[in-house]
Amino acid sequence: MAELWDGFQEALRLILRGDANLRDIALRTVLVSGSATLLAMLVGVPVGYALARARFRGRTLVLGLVNTGMGMPPVVIGLIVWLMLVRSGPFGDLELIYTKRAMVTAQFIIAVPLVVGFTSAAVQSLPPQLPDLLASLGAGRLRSLWLLGREARLGLLAAIMAGFGAVVSEVGASMTVGGNLQGNTRVLTTAIVTETSRGQNDRAIALGIILFLMAFAVNLVLTMVQHRRLR
Amino acid sequence: MDVTFESVQFARDRWTVLDVPELRLRAGRVTALLGPNGAGKSTLLRLIAGLEAPTAGTVRIGERTVTGARQVRDLVAFSFQEPVFLTGSVRANLTLGLELRKVPRDAQAQRVGAAATALGITGLLRRNAHRLSGGEGQRVNLARALALRAPVTLLDEPLAGLDAPAQRQMLDDLPGLLAEFAPTTILVTHVREEAMRLADDLVVLMDGRVRAAGEMASVLRTPPDDETARFLGYTVLPAGNSTIAVPAWQLVPGVGTYTFQLAVRSVVDTGFGMEVAGTIAGETVRVAWVGAAPSPGEAVTVSWTRRG
Q1: Which residue does chain B place closest to A150, by CA atoms?
Q2: Least Cα separation, residue A130 to chain B (angstroms)
Q3: What is the pLDDT of residue B245?
Q4: Alpha carbon distance B130, B85 (integer Å)
Q5: How many Cβ atoms from other residues are within 10 Å of residue A225's Cβ?
Q6: CATH code for the domain defined by A2-226
Q7: B3-221 topology per CATH
Q8: Residue B305 in this model has a pLDDT that exceeds 60
Q9: Distance CA A31, CA B218 (A)
Q10: Residue B96: its chain A contacts at CB < 8 A?
Q11: Per-domain boundaries in chain B
Q12: pLDDT digit string (tens) for A87-126?
């Protein structure tokens, strides 16, 4: 308990002092996990919508794969991405291994099934007559999509929160494909592992508290948007 | 605007749901599409609204060929059987269609106000649309379609989901509402009495085919075949059977080969002719009566000439 309190005090000291190292790590975490979540949204929301609305042979199989992907351990995804990007791998020539791009790639793969799955569930929970109603009222394709998205906003924002929450808190994939290089690919989660292994528990706890506050701030904003009253 | 069907076929999974070689639904009339469940009534409505595309043939509203919902959005208002609303107030839901059709803002408020007043829902306008009772929801659903004041209004089972008192109220209110907001209306129902109360014209659909179409009284008086007559509430005696063994039945004058003596018990004006009730061999009989109605207590001869 004392260590936790020391960690909290250390976190406050680091934040108030404007520790440059900590700021870089925190910003890098936001950049990497934010980019991965954004890309996952761009791909996952349309795919999730299409999966919810379309009826095709093999749809159940695809949904099963998506649901499996939602529970895939990040370290396994990290391992697969590492095998793809390592110098001797099929994409080794791209020289992405141990870079932030590699971390974004791994985190994107972790987040996409979550965003697809949550989006698909959100759209499927809408009344099935809604698209016909909007079309008959005179909404075009884009306006219909926008209005349906607005109706499904609780689920869509939950999809984004789940995606961001998963990637900002994972450590295995970032460690494997990023290498935890100081000043380059170290993010909050890998930094916590490093500090713990060095016996710097108070600093590790401080980083943990900052990670928690960051996740809380992002989710608070999204929750406020989620529950904003609609006209 | 007239709605016309020319050689229209609609198939789903290689099964022909609808086959309408020719049909004209007249402008300025309320037309009821009457038929049992699965007859293709709602599909016919969806074809008019452009929500489904015919597998073959052409649907026209006035001179315009229907090729999609957006393309006829200025011509059609659709009230779906199940009221569905978007998140927001009742007013926002009523206004949405007018916004999408680019009706000027002043006119939007005026139209929503008029429809809400006519349907008695002005007190609900600020209410969350997801917190309406079944009856309230059905009225708001109808108001949303009527506020559009479209050249053609489509109502899919407008009385569905209402309890008996609310149905009676709506049956009383609807004719006036349609006359004011939707002079050309096509409504779907599977209840004959609803069709008789609300519509000028009647189209009987069975198994995806139009069995009868025309003015209400004409279709009701002369069903074209036994199956349609049965669906319209008549009991059809089998050919060659001269014994009345049906507990309660009705006869179609002009169809059949039988003559009965009927002791008249009551005479009721249905609005489409007289209905004479009496007894034959202890059984109650109701007869759609053509010509001067008899008086109760009188013994009359009923002739029934089978067709075909």
Answers
A1: B87
A2: 7
A3: 32
A4: 7
A5: 11
A6: 1.10.3720.10
A7: Rossmann fold (3.40.50)
A8: no
A9: 75
A10: 137
A11: 3-221, 234-304
A12: 999 999 999 999 999 999 999 999 999 999 999 999 999 9
